Structures are given as structure tokens and as C-alpha cells.
């Protein structure tokens, strides 16, 4: 035997102390119904299923919070208060409920709220959340169920889109019955809801949500419950098949393979025009037990005073009839109307006056066995004012609506508009294109009794004023930029280009790169349509900017240069650039990118070309102005160069091995000469410098002399000394004392005397400075007499 209780995940938190939170809440559901009088006016209804005890009695209100999905920002907190009498949940078999201590009640809380549509315009929508504790301790598929709570969750769309109000109510669900399921027996339960707006509902299995930090109004995201090993969202109840839900109808089905109390959750997605706009999560508990093998009762049912084969009848105002089932003192009886168990309807017969489909559920007394059902009996009652429904919309200048009555057999129909009979309309439906107050009168063909339906007022919706304009304010497409077109006046849009529909485009914005004539048809929340005036979009001709070649510049002192670009009217940007003038001194040495940008039109992105302006350094040459060398000498002139020169030229070419090398290689120089070096870098920046080379004969120094007065080699004289007018000669003894010093080219030479006295024979040291431009010459001198 099993029981089914569901929890529509709602965004509420009970206004009660934490001790009250410990109440075992079996489930519940939340509805958010648009009142329809003022945009943003809603009635929020919270239906809770509690264990019937003193703690549940203390819970009389609920706190709800709304959050923005995009960033989980809290929008508003409000209170729902108890609004109706509490009632017990009715079971097919009261004995089974008593044996399993299944004693649960229904409590309803409501809140009348007014939301500002302008504040609820985020395209990602909003959600409600409610966290409460605790679940039943006997749950068999959760880890730590007593420490596991509920988070009920509901999403709803933005109240306004592109300034237009979106009317929407959440799905609605019928009250629960006290159901039970036998292990090994197929079980189904019609769990599907209805949507007041006619939106599509899609169902799927989900993992239930746990509480977050024990805070009744905490924003998401919310944690999931912890399933025990082997259980999951799609295997919450083991079986063959395991628990599943029909994605279109919402019917639960399972053939359970083990007993226990199991938790699972269902997500109900709300779709409009193929797009998801809302979501409700519903938590459930299902008890599976091993039923005795006794055969289920097989009752019959019929309408009193009618043949057993007649399963439908109609009641006139004030009339009632009795439904009769097979009488058996060993059976329990529970009557249902439209699938909902009726209170105190537990005998084999039932007196009815209300319209509906009635079924009797029968089980054996004092045991929990499978339940049997008799055929359904349909009661069409003129005691109840027939419900008139409408579909369609009267738009400003077109459109139609269909008025329809629920099927009542054996009646004739007469329709009125504004109290006047509409001729020729005698069916249960009326199609009209006219506004007014409509009502139908039903007359039973056989019984002759009459009843009037409720009234419906049809009005024309305001005209849909569709507009189309470009976001930039310019009706032309730039060569490199898309043009954003913006529509208004509806909630969905159909776009056309040159009279041809643009597929799969329903948004208010369209990005195009193509010229043409555009229009759109806007559809508002009523389903009415309007077409915008056409908007002709032209193409801005492309431009190809060019920048006149920028010359090279030698040094930062070069003259400013006037930049030139085509077409005229563009903007020059780059280092050292002001207006259309490039100034090397401002830019500095180096390579600089100079760009020239031209807009094809004022609203278009600029098209850019660029060149490199190079401010080259001016080369420099560092080398001596003059140089002294010996005749026949070979040497290299190695000047210090800056400014990155790449071209070199020495002149004249006399004695040079290469005139185009940065270093001059001189071979066997014979005579004095002046060389000039020209250098040039990549920027054609030039520098020049000269060096004069004086060529002299070699100075030969004797290594010995004999000042003995024989007239031969009596003086130490340097050969070719006449070529060195600045020559300085010094002789030292072994103690470093100067014994001879002479300057000039006309010196007589060392005669071996110091202050008129002969110096001793021996080896002496000399140092000769031929010229300041030449290195000193030093050596040893032998004096022998």
C-alpha cells in the first residue's frame, strides 16, 4: 500500500519559530494567479500538507520571497496568511490510513500582492523560493531524512517586455487524494495540471531540493537532497518499470519492486509559443507496501431509476439523483467526483446534484488490498450555472472569439449579445467578431427546464501600433558595421526584408548588413497584430583611405612635415602628430606608426590605413684630426661611428685596400696625406670627417758606442733625428740617475761624459720620445772605450 503526497516547490517560508519548522511537512503546492484587473496584481495561494498535530496547528502564515534569476537579487518579501478551514486528506481505504497512521491535513494560505511591472522586466525572469524543515524520518531513499528539508521553487517570466505587459498565471493543480500502491501491481496517478493561459506544460523527473543554511528567505542556487546509493531522480522508486512521468500528460506510473516510503520530485515547465516562460518544482512522497493477495472487489454502479446501461443523466434545477453501487457488507466505499475523493461519501450509495464524473472506489474492510472501481457515471446538472469559456481575441479591426459551453446532452441553445437574441445560433459554441456581453440559455429538450450560463464580456483589444526604426537614428548600413533595427509595439515580431520573411526571427532587434526595405509585424500579449510602415535602408559607399608616403627624417631637428591623405577630411593619429603635421622633435628618434582614418559616414566606424615615419639619428664620426707614422708603415684607421651608418666612402683611394669599408686599411704609406670619410645611414643622413697623416722616416738608435777619442764612434748619435724636431732623448745609469738629456733635432749626441767626467763603461738605459704623436722608444745602450 502506498500513499501519494506532493509538494509543489513554492517560494515561501513559514512565519514561525524554528521549533515550528520541525513540523513534518508532507508536501504542498503554490499558485500565482493573475487577477486581471491591474497589471502586476496577483493572488498567491500556498497549499500545505501537514501531519495533523499541535505543531502543525501553530503554523498559520508563510513568508514568501521573490528573486531576480540573473543575479539572485531579492526583489520583495511578503506574507501569506491562512485563508480557509483545514481539512483532512481523504483515503480510498480509511482502515489502511489508520493502520499506517496516515493522518494528514490540508492548510491554505493566501496573499494579495501588487508588483510593479516596470521593476520586473528582466528577460531572464524571476523565481520564488521557500525553505522549511523537516521530512519524515521513515523515508527510505534519502540519507538523513530528518535532517533534510524542503526548498519549494517556482519561476515566472518578466512582467513586461519592450514596455508591454505580459499576462501570465502559473499552472493549477487539483487537490490530492489519499492513494496507496501495492508492490508488484501497476500504479498510475493523474498528476497533470492545467494552465489558465492555455500554455503548454511539460513534465520531467528531478532531484528534490534541500534547504540552504536554514534561512527561510535565502536566495538560490539551492542544494539537492542526498539520495542513498542506487536511487536517483529517474530511479527514485525501484521497479519494473521504475517511477516515471509522462512528459505530455503528467501521469505518474510505477510497478514497485520494494516496499518503503520514497521521495521524488517533478518539474513542470511552462511553454508559450515554443519558448519556456516558467517552471514549478513539486516534491512527492509515495509509500509502497506489500498487499495481501486477495482479489480486488469488482463493484457495479448505476444511476437510480435508470437502466444499468445508462451512464449519463441530466438534472433540472433543484433536482438530485442517487448513485448506487453493489452492496456488500465486507466492502469499504469511497466516492470520487472528477477524480477527487469526496468527504463523508463512504456508503454504497450517493445522492448528487452537482455536475461531474462520479466513480466509486471499493476495497475490502479491515485489510489493505488492491482497490476496485466501478464504471464512471456522468451527471450533467442544470442546477449548476454552465461555465462559458472563450478562446480567440477581438482585435482592434479584426479577429474573432469562440464561446463554448461544457457538453450538456439533450439541451437546445439560445445565445444573446447585450441581452438581444442572436438569430440562428443554436449550438453549444458561438463564433463572433463583435464585442459585447454574451450569455447562453440552455433548455433541456425532454425535461423542458432552463438554465442560463454565466456571462462573458468580449471587448476589442487596443490597436497594435508597430514601429520600426534604427537604433543609430540613421537609415543606412555602414560598410564595416551592422545596422541595428528596433521594433516595438508587441511581444513577438515577424520581420520582412524586401517583402520576404526573415526565418526564425521573433525578437524586437535585428542586426543587418544589407540595404533594402524592411518591415515587421508585431504581435501583442492578446495575440493581435499590427504592421509597421516600411523602413528603407540604404548602403553607405565604402571608402579606401590612402596616406601619401612619409619621407625619412634626419635627426629630431628636421623640419615638421605636412601629412597628406585621401579622401580628405580624415584624422591623422600617431606620435609627434598634431592635426596634419608631423614634428620629428616631438616624436623623437625611432619608428612611429602614423595612421589616417576616414569615416564613410558620421555614424560609421572609421576605416584606417597607416605608414611608418622614421626619425633617423644623424651619424657622427670620431677620429683624430692628424696622425704621425713612419714611411712604409701599414696601419688601420678605425673611427668611432654612431647613427647606424650603412654606407661608407674614403677618399682619396691612395694606399687604401678598400674605400667602402668603415675601417680604412692603409698599406705601405709613402707620403703624408689627408683622408676624408663620408658615411650615410638608411635615412640618407650624412656625416663626414678628415684625418691628416704625417709620414716620417724611421728613427734608428745605435745599440753601442766607444767614446775613446779615436774619432770613430765617439758619440751616441740617432740616425734621421733631423726629421723629429721635438725629439727628447734621456739616458739613465743603472741606479736610474739621468746622465744625459737633450731635446730637439740639432743635439750633438751623448759623448760618454757627465759634467765633463767620463762615465764608467757599462750598460745604460735610454728613453727616446720622437714626437708627442708617437709612442716612446726605450732600450739598452753599451758604452765601451
TrEMBL record:
Keyword Signal in record: yes
Keyword Zinc part of the UniProt annotation: no
Ig-like domain: residues covered: 293-380
Domain of life: Bacteria
Key words, A-Z: Signal
PROSITE patterns reported in the protein's UniProt record: IG_LIKE
Signal peptide limits: 1-22
Pfam families: CHU_C
InterPro entries in the cross-refs: Ig-like_dom (IPR007110), Ig-like_fold (IPR013783), T9SS_type_B (IPR026341)
Protein name (Swiss-Prot/TrEMBL): Gliding motility-associated C-terminal domain-containing protein
Organism annotation: Fibrella forsythiae
Amino acid at each position: 500500500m502506498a500513499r501519494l503526497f506532493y509538494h509543489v516547490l513554492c517560494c515561501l517560508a513559514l512565519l514561525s519559530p524554528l521549533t515550528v519548522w520541525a513540523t513534518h511537512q508532507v508536501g504542498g503546492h503554490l499558485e500565482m494567479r493573475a487577477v486581471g484587473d491591474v497589471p502586476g496584481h496577483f493572488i498567491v495561494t500556498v497549499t500545505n500538507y501537514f501531519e495533523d498535530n499541535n505543531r502543525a496547528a501553530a503554523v498559520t502564515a508563510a513568508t514568501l520571497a521573490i528573486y531576480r534569476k540573473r543575479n539572485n537579487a531579492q526583489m520583495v518579501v511578503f506574507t501569506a496568511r491562512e485563508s480557509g478551514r483545514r481539512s483532512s486528506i481523504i483515503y480510498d481505504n480509511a482502515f489502511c490510513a489508520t493502520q499506517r497512521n496516515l493522518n494528514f491535513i490540508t492548510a491554505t494560505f493566501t496573499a494579495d500582492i501588487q508588483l510593479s511591472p516596470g521593476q520586473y522586466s528582466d528577460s531572464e525572469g524571476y523565481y520564488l523560493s521557500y525553505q522549511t524543515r523537516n521530512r519524515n524520518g521513515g523515508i527510505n531513499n534519502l540519507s538523513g531524512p530528518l535532517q533534510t528539508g524542503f526548498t519549494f521553487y517556482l519561476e515566472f517570466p518578466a512582467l513586461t517586455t519592450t514596455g508591454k505587459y505580459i499576462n501570465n498565471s502559473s499552472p493549477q493543480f487539483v487537490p490530492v487524494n489519499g492513494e496507496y500502491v501495492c508492490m508488484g501491481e501497476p500504479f498510475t496517478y493523474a498528476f497533470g495540471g492545467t494552465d489558465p493561459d492555455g500554455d503548454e506544460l511539460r513534465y520531467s523527473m528531478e532531484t528534490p531540493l534541500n534547504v540552504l543554511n536554514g534561512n527561510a528567505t535565502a536566495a538560490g542556487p539551492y542544494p539537492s537532497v542526498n539520495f542513498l546509493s542506487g536511487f536517483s531522480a529517474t530511479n527514485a522508486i525501484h521497479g519494473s518499470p521504475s517511477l516515471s512521468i509522462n512528459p505530455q500528460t503528467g501521469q505518474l506510473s510505477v510497478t514497485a519492486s520494494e516496499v518503503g516510503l520514497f521521495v521524488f520530485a517533478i518539474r513542470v515547465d511552462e511553454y508559450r509559443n515554443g519558448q519556456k516562460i516558467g517552471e514549478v518544482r513539486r516534491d512527492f512522497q509515495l509509500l509502497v507496501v506489500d498487499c495481501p493477495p486477495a482479489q480486488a472487489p469488482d463493484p457495479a454502479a448505476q444511476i437510480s431509476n435508470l437502466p444499468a446501461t445508462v451512464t449519463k443523466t441530466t438534472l433540472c434545477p433543484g433536482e438530485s439523483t442517487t448513485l448506487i453501487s453493489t452492496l456488500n457488507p465486507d466492502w469499504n466505499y469511497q466516492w470520487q467526483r472528477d477524480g477527487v475523493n469526496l468527504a463523508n461519501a463512504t456508503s454504497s450509495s450517493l445522492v448528487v446534484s452537482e455536475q461531474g464524473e462520479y466513480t466509486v472506489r471499493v476495497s475490502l474492510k479491515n485489510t489493505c488490498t488492491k482497490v476496485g472501481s466501478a464504471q464512471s457515471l456522468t451527471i450533467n446538472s442544470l442546477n449548476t450555472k454552465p461555465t462559458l469559456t472563450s478562446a480567440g481575441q477581438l482585435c482592434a479591426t479584426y479577429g474573432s472569439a469562440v464561446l463554448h459551453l461544457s457538453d450538456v446532452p439533450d439541451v437546445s441553445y439560445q445565445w444573446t449579445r447585450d441581452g438581444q437574441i442572436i438569430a440562428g445560433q443554436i449550438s453549444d459554441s458561438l463564433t463572433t467578431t463583435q464585442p459585447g456581453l454574451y450569455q447562453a440559455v440552455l433548455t433541456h429538450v425532454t425535461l423542458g427546464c432552463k438554465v442560463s450560463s454565466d456571462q462573458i464580456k468580449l471587448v476589442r483589444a487596443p490597436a497594435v501600433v508597430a514601429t520600426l526604426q534604427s537604433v543609430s537614428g540613421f537609415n543606412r548600413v555602414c560598410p564595416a558595421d551592422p545596422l541595428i533595427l528596433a521594433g516595438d509595439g508587441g511581444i513577438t515580431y515577424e520581420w520582412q526584408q524586401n517583402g520576404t520573411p526573415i526565418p526564425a526571427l521573433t525578437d524586437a532587434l535585428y542586426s543587418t548588413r544589407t540595404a533594402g526595405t524592411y518591415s515587421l509585424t508585431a504581435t501583442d500579449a492578446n495575440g493581435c497584430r499590427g504592421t509597421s510602415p516600411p523602413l528603407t535602408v540604404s548602403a553607405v559607399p565604402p571608402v579606401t583611405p590612402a596616406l601619401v608616403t612619409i619621407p625619412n627624417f634626419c635627426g629630431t631637428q628636421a623640419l615638421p612635415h605636412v601629412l597628406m591623405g585621401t579622401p580628405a577630411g580624415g584624422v591623422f593619429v600617431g606620435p609627434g602628430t598634431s592635426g596634419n603635421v608631423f614634428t620629428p622633435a616631438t616624436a623623437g628618434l625611432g619608428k612611429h606608426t602614423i595612421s589616417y582614418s576616414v569615416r564613410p559616414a558620421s555614424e560609421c566606424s572609421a576605416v584606417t590605413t597607416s605608414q611608418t615615419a622614421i626619425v633617423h639619428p644623424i651619424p657622427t664620426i670620431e677620429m683624430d684630426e692628424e696622425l704621425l707614422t713612419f714611411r712604409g708603415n701599414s696601419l688601420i684607421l678605425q673611427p668611432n661611428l654612431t647613427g647606424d651608418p650603412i654606407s661608407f666612402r674614403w677618399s682619396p683611394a691612395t694606399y687604401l685596400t678598400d674605400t667602402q669599408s668603415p675601417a680604412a686599411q692603409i698599406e705601405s704609406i709613402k707620403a703624408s696625406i689627408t683622408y676624408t670619410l663620408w658615411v650615410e645611414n638608411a635615412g640618407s643622413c650624412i656625416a663626414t670627417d678628415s684625418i691628416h697623416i704625417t709620414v716620417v722616416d724611421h728613427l734608428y738608435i745605435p745599440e753601442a758606442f766607444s767614446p775613446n777619442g779615436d774619432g770613430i764612434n765617439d758619440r751616441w748619435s740617432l740616425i734621421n733625428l733631423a726629421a723629429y724636431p721635438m725629439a727628447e732623448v734621456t739616458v739613465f745609469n743603472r741606479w736610474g740617475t739621468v746622465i744625459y738629456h737633450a731635446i730637439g733635432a740639432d743635439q750633438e749626441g751623448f759623448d760618454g761624459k757627465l759634467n765633463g767626467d767620463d762615465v764608467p763603461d757599462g750598460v745604460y738605459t735610454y728613453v727616446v720620445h720622437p714626437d708627442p704623436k708617437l709612442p716612446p722608444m726605450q732600450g739598452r745602450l753599451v758604452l765601451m772605450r
